[in-house]
Design brief:
Helix content: 25-40%
Structural class: alpha/beta
Strand content: 15-25%
CATH superfamily of the largest domain: Carbon-nitrogen hydrolase
Shape: elongated
CATH class of the largest domain: Alpha Beta
Number of helices: 17
Length: 539
């Protein structure tokens, strides 16, 4: 039985020496502890994924080549398949190399280079054109890379080159429903080739992307494995019986697949890795007594621990007593330290300073935004003074329609719920409280409000959030037209207004903080609309 180890691990972008050390340690563990014949690493494990414009720097590519050469010289007693970028003259390839007994015995260059959604691989690489099949312990093993699994050609070429099993090295970022899509794709490749396939994915947060692990396998008979652990490093090991075509899952802990727990783990991993990988030890943010900041706080405490989380209450003349009570209740509930800094003196000073130039004008959103920006100023001051990572607390629904204040509640270095629609904010809050109480009931039940003027609620200017979120999903994520959305039992006037707000708010979003992507089309890398544009959706 061929024993294959799979390093479902976190390889940091740009940290070539650290990744090489991690790879060597995993090789030794697979050989000495698991008795594996072969260990496979994810796509571009040596440099981390995606390295983006780092691969355009000759020094970076030389460092990667040198590290691979040094690794090859230290691999003995086990075969290793390692992902890395490769230069050949003025061409660059997304490659894996097969290491055995101190040498590189074969290299495979990725065939299908994705250039959609968050991917820009054609900017950096050229496609390969030859399969790689290597015999290990009597079994012919074919190798493909990530997007090659989503199209039939590379797997078919591996089979035609004699492969009896295919391993796929991936750096596949999460979106809701990704597990089901992977299972479908593996079933399609199996149906076309008749071969068993192993799908290895990496783990970890990288800017907006979260790589969720959830590695999978499908045997010769079409039986799919359970997904491997979610958002967690794991050394997996399977035995492959050449005669029966079945896998023996020797070390394969099952990962969770329920929707809300999965999303929660992805949001946690994204926040934790962005914070720690960028050299921060703690986070700071405004805690208002509302649902968005409450959810942000619960995610932050789960991701980093209460001792690394600093919520700040920043009341003004419009802050209700209930808001202060609920914020204090959550602070006590989760055991964090806190600060309580009134913005009223700042607000009064700003109004006084602007009184002469504002004379004769009516109050409008300007006075509201002064308060939001005063809060942003306080958060940034605490960040600068004490080294906390400042968190923005806006959700996707607000960011879509511009119901957020640039340099105010949008102010921050990371935005943990940036891709979370308001309806999902409530779902996640309800689910998290089934694990242990983390968000006060009163926060979930009260009408959402920015509390920037008397008796203000979000629904003063916006349709109910279930209506709004359905329009945003269709217009932003599914690219439906106004007419198509209106046909789906939506009020056309409301749809037109929301579509106009989405387009008009592009300049705000472009200046917002990054946050973890959980949908197929997040604001930022996924959706790239011009700020300056004369186009308006006519339906």
């Amino acid at each position: 039985m061929l024993r294959i180890a799979l390093a479902q691990d976190d390889f940091r972008v740009g940290h070539i020496t650290g990744n090489a050390g991690r790879i060597l340690a995993q090789i030794a563990r697979a050989r000495d502890e698991l008795g594996a014949d072969l260990i496979v690493f994810p796509e571009l494990a040596l440099t981390g994924y995606p390295p983006e414009d780092l691969v355009l720097r000759p020094g970076f590519m030389r460092s990667a080549a040198s590290a691979l050469s040094e690794l090859a010289g230290q691999v003995h007693g086990i075969d290793a398949v390692i992902g890395h970028p490769r230069a050949e003259g003025d061409k660059r390839f997304n490659s894996v190399s097969w290491l055995r007994d101190g040498e590189v015995i074969g290299t495979y260059d990725k065939w299908d280079l994705p250039n959609y959604a968050v991917f820009d691989e054609r900017r950096y690489f050229v496609p390969g054109e030859a399969p790689l099949v290597v015999e290990v312990d009597g079994v012919k093993v074919g190798v493909i890379i990530c997007e090659d699994t989503w199209t039939p050609e590379a797997a078919r070429a591996a089979r035609e080159a004699g492969a009896e099993i295919i391993v796929s090295a991936n750096a596949s970022p999460f979106y809701e429903g990704k597990h089901a899509d992977r299972a479908r794709i593996l079933s399609e490749r199996h149906a076309e080739t008749g071969l068993p396939l192993i799908y290895l994915n990496c783990v970890g947060g990288q800017d907006e992307l979260v790589f969720d692990g959830h590695s999978m396998a499908i045997d010769r008979h079409g039986a799919l494995s359970e997904p491997a652990p979610l958002c967690a490093e794991a050394m997996l090991c399977v035995g492959f019986d050449r005669e029966s075509g079945r896998f023996d899952y020797r070390h394969w802990p099952a990962g969770k697949t329920e929707r809300l727990p999965v999303v929660w783990e992805v949001l946690k991993r994204g926040l934790r890795d962005y914070t720690l990988k960028n050299g921060f030890e703690s986070v700071v943010f405004g805690l208002s007594g509302g649902i968005d900041s409450a959810l942000t706080m619960a995610i932050a405490v789960d991701a980093l621990g209460a001792e690394r989380v600093l919520p700040v209450m920043m009341p003004s003349r419009h802050t209700s007593e209930l808001s202060l009570i609920l914020a204090s209740e959550q602070i006590e509930m989760l055991g964090t330290r806190f600060e309580n800094i009134s913005i009223e003196p700042i607000y009064q000073a700003q109004l006084k300073q602007l009184a002469e130039v504002f004379e004769g004008t009516r109050e409008n959103f300007t006075e509201e935004n002064l308060q939001a920006r005063a809060r942003g100023n306080v958060v940034m001051a605490l960040s600068n003074k004490f080294g906390h990572l400042p968190l923005a607390t806006s959700n996707k629904s607000e960011l879509a329609v511009g119901y957020s204040t640039i340099y105010g509640d949008m102010c921050g270095g990371y935005s943990p719920i940036k891709d979370v629609l308001k309806t999902l904010v409530y779902e996640l809050a309800e689910w998290r409280n089934t694990v242990s109480e983390a968000i006060p009931r009163g926060v979930i039940e009260r009408p959402p409000s920015a509390e920037l003027r008397p008796d203000q609620t979000d629904q003063d200017k916006l349709p109910p959030y279930d209506v709004l979120d359905d329009i945003i999903t269709r217009y932003v994520e599914q690219d439906q037209s106004i007419a198509e959305i209106a046909e789906a039992d939506a009020d056309e006037k409301i749809v037109r207004r929301i579509a106009g707000m989405v387009l008009a708010s592009e300049f705000k979003r472009r200046q917002g903080a990054p946050g973890p992507r959980i949908t197929r089309k997040a604001f930022g890398r996924d959706r790239r609309y011009p700020i300056t544009s004369g186009w308006r959706d006519s339906g």
